[in-house]
Write a structure and sequence with these properties.
Layout lengths: L6 E6 L3 H13 L4 E6 L37 H9 L18 H17 L6 E5 L3 E7 L2 E6 L4 E4 L1 E4 L19 E2 L7 H6 L3 E5 L3 H12 L5 E6 L27 H17 L4 H7 L4 H7 L2 H19 L4 H13 L2 E5 L1 E7 L5 E6 L6 E5 L1 E4 L13 H8 L19 E3 L5 E7 L5 H4 L5 H24 L2
Length: 470
């Protein structure tokens, strides 16, 4: 069939969310589709940045039994890993539903899922993988005209922004050279640069920091690692706990944030008094989190961001036991030092290193001399601040607006992007992290796989609706 007669869908970003949306479109569509998956980094097609890891020590933060990419086949990933991988001590002592397997394996799995979906798709469909960057997306002819960095142009009936996460936009101080201060912990040169140091500073104390710590230890780093975090919270450890706590469908009906936090604490206390584990309650909340988030007022959501989020994330996003063992051992022997403080400035010294100023509330500033600094403070929440050509153009033309809490983009419940006048687009959608302000729980596979299937259904319904009008 001629491509010009097919319905055109462009998905910007070919990580987990974009690729799985394409997979579900291919599985479900009856009308002929021409799908373009656009990914600027060739080796991230199918897996994105998160699952492009190459170090075996970088493990998933969710057990293998919960990591199927396909909602209707819960053991799909576990079966794949059992058939295609082998135990590799000490990082992978077993391949089981409860095991935390390497992210590199998961990336291979996702690539295969996408490749198989393309290979087995009915002949009426066409899929094109485009290694390029979309820089302009202009509404036109009941769809969008698209332009890329390399100068390609085409029209799409529907577009999906599957953008994933972006590194934080932290302005560098003039005195701090970029070769000693890194904003993106995943940049290819960062680990190699740290391995050449005797002392380094990681700003932030979440899971990304632990990724760097274990990579350094796995590569026989003998220097001292300093970690600076305003609250000094480090990731909690996964532990097996048997059955999930029981939360009925209408559970946790706090009328405001304070009441909700109080009720969660009370349920955890009751559960633990009965011999349970707090992790069981936190995990049982997962299917309810979007409803709970949306029930909060805007002021309560902002209060959550300021005061509750660090503690919620600390309990919600946990690390595998073998990672925690390495981290705790390094804390005990002094090769890791955690500072409960903010980094207020940094400047290059005469030896080519950097002096960071650590500030804890109510205490004198502490200068800390290190060789390198890496910011591990999580993704940039405010997409309007990014120096990304496509987002800059979409904001400038009023095609999108920020979510009211400044986290991600404004959308409706189905992922349609809301423009500057408050109208939901019938042709421009998003999925994953850009929807965090609307759903909150929208960055991990158990939620994203359901989102991808639902978005594919929404896109097909929209195409059928517009076809019926012509």
């Amino acid at each position: 069939m001629a491509l010009s007669t097919m319905k055109q869908i462009t998905i910007v970003g070919a990580g987990f969310s974009g690729s799985l949306t394409a997979v579900h479109l291919l599985r479900s569509a009856t009308m002929p589709l021409h799908i373009r998956l656009v990914e600027k980094t060739a080796n991230q097609v199918g897996k994105g940045l998160a699952y492009s890891a190459t170090q075996i020590c970088h493990l998933l933060n969710v057990p293998a039994g919960s990591m199927s990419a396909l909602p209707d086949q819960p053991d799909h990933f576990l079966n794949w890993a059992t058939a295609n991988c082998r135990v590799e001590a000490p990082w992978v002592p077993e391949i089981a539903a409860t095991a935390f397997l390497p992210r590199a394996w998961y990336g291979r799995y996702l690539t295969q899922v996408l490749q198989e979906a393309i290979a087995t798709a009915p002949h009426r469909h066409a899929v094109e993988i485009v290694t390029d960057e979309v820089t302009c997306l202009v509404p036109a002819h009941q769809g969008h005209n698209i332009t890329t960095h390399l100068g390609a142009h085409w029209h799409a009936d529907l577009c999906v922004l599957a953008l994933g996460n972006f590194a934080q936009t932290r302005p560098m101080e003039p005195a701090a050279a970029p070769n000693v201060c890194h904003r993106n912990p995943w940049a290819p040169h960062v680990l190699e640069a740290l391995l050449q140091t005797r002392r380094c500073l990681l700003v932030g104390s979440g899971l990304t920091t632990l990724d760097l710590v274990v990579a350094l230890r796995a590569n026989h780093y003998t220097g001292r690692i300093h970690i600076a975090s305003r609250r000094g919270l480090t990731p909690r450890r996964h532990r097996p706990y048997g059955q999930l706590a029981i939360l009925e469908s209408g559970a946790l009906q706090g009328s405001n944030l304070r009441a909700l936090v109080r009720e969660v604490r009370q349920r955890i206390a009751t559960h633990m008094a009965q011999g349970g584990d707090w992790r069981s309650v936190i995990d049982a909340m997962r299917p309810h989190n979007a409803r709970l988030w949306q029930s909060l007022s805007l002021s309560d959501r902002k209060m959550f961001m300021r005061h509750v989020r660090p503690y919620w994330d600390n309990h919600r996003h946990r690390t595998a036991a073998q990672i925690d063992d390495i981290f705790r051992a390094a804390l005990s022997d002094g090769s890791i030092v955690v500072h409960r403080a903010r980094v207020t400035r940094h400047e290059t010294d005469s030896t080519g290193g950097v002096i960071a100023t650590l500030q804890r509330h109510g205490q004198p500033a502490l200068p800390l001399e290190v060789d390198q600094i890496v910011y591990c403070t999580g993704p940039e929440p405010n997409l309007k601040q990014l120096d990304a050509p496509l987002l800059r153009q979409l904001f400038a033309q009023g095609c999108v607006q920020s979510n009211p809490i400044g986290f991600g983009l404004a959308t409706n419940a189905k992922g349609a992007l809301i423009n500057a006048t408050g109208q939901a687009s019938p042709t421009l959608f998003t999925i994953g992290p850009p929807m965090k302000g609307h759903l909150w729980e929208t960055t991990a596979v158990p939620e994203l796989r359901v989102q991808a299937a639902a978005l594919a259904s929404t896109l097909l319904e929209q195409l059928e609706r517009t076809s019926a009008l012509h």
